[in-house]
Write a structure and sequence with these properties.
mainly alpha; 0% strand; globular
Length: 264
């Protein structure tokens, strides 16, 4: 067999030029990881006992009969892959490795209050509370109580203090503003009429409840786009396209593409 570079092998495997992977198993770990991702020649791959390959197999749902054996593996990548699958959370939340513990929290958000002070766990909790439109005030407050691992969150210590901050919106960072808006919206008792109004109707009337059904991440993205619209003097376009912007608010780039469509 002629020598082949990994990039060429991958390309040919993807386009169907190479269909028999067995001759490539012995070349290198990179080749074996790719073959593992396709679920082929698993017994031959396992003979190498490579953590990276085992990790791929777990992520792809193979070798389930050996999970019990792997849960105490010395390589954290293997334990992390198992934790990502939602397995043994009571054990893995106490794992000595922060990435394994973070994987537990991502798979089982109810474990977030057992996190330790690490960058990985902070970001796992951050993602959970900021991507959930139905997040509770309690969970938001818990996240804000954690030691900060991102300087953008400096000074964000409690929802109560944030909600009471009376500074104009323009003086706040988009993240602080998003937390204030969410806190005030959740604390507000909605009238029967308000419950029948759409987010755009609530927004245009200046009602803070327009963010009630949005995640912190969505609110922050809308705030960023509002500031772009203000900067380029296209706030009328922002209001006209509000529903489109709201529909794409989970993804800032998608929202920015909508914004560009009415700025051009």
């Amino acid at each position: 067999m002629a020598k082949i570079q990994y990039r060429d092998f991958e390309q040919q495997a993807e386009n169907g030029t190479i269909t028999d992977f067995k001759p490539y198993i012995g070349i290198s770990g990179k080749f074996r990881e790719y073959i593992a991702s396709k679920g082929q020649h698993i017994n031959e791959l396992m003979a190498y006992n490579e953590p990276a390959v085992i990790t791929v197999l777990i992520k792809k749902g193979y070798v389930r009969d050996r999970y019990d054996e792997f849960k105490t593996h010395t390589d954290k990548r293997i334990r992390e892959a198992l934790a990502e699958q939602g397995l043994w959370p009571d054990e893995f939340i106490k794992d000595p490795n922060r990435d394994v513990r973070a994987a537990v929290v991502s798979a089982h958000p109810k474990y977030m209050k057992q996190v330790q002070n690490s960058n990985s766990e902070w970001y796992a909790v951050n993602h959970i509370v900021e991507s959930d439109p139905s997040v509770s005030l309690e969970d938001l407050d818990f996240f804000l109580s954690l030691p900060k691992h991102n300087r953008d969150y400096k000074g964000l210590d409690s929802l109560e203090a944030i909600a009471k901050d009376e500074r104009p919106d323009a003086e706040l960072t988009t993240i602080r503003l998003a937390y204030r808006q969410k806190a005030r919206a959740l604390a507000q008792e909605m009238s029967v009429l308000e419950k029948t109004m759409t987010p755009v109707e609530l927004y245009k009337s200046g009602n803070p409840a327009w963010v009630r059904g949005l995640s912190i991440a969505q609110i922050r993205n809308m705030n960023r786009l509002y500031r772009y619209a203000d900067r380029y003097d296209v706030l009328d376009g922002f209001e006209r396209h509000f529903n489109q912007l709201l529909a794409t608010s989970h993804d800032f780039q998608a929202g920015y593409d909508v914004f560009c469509s009415f700025v051009a």
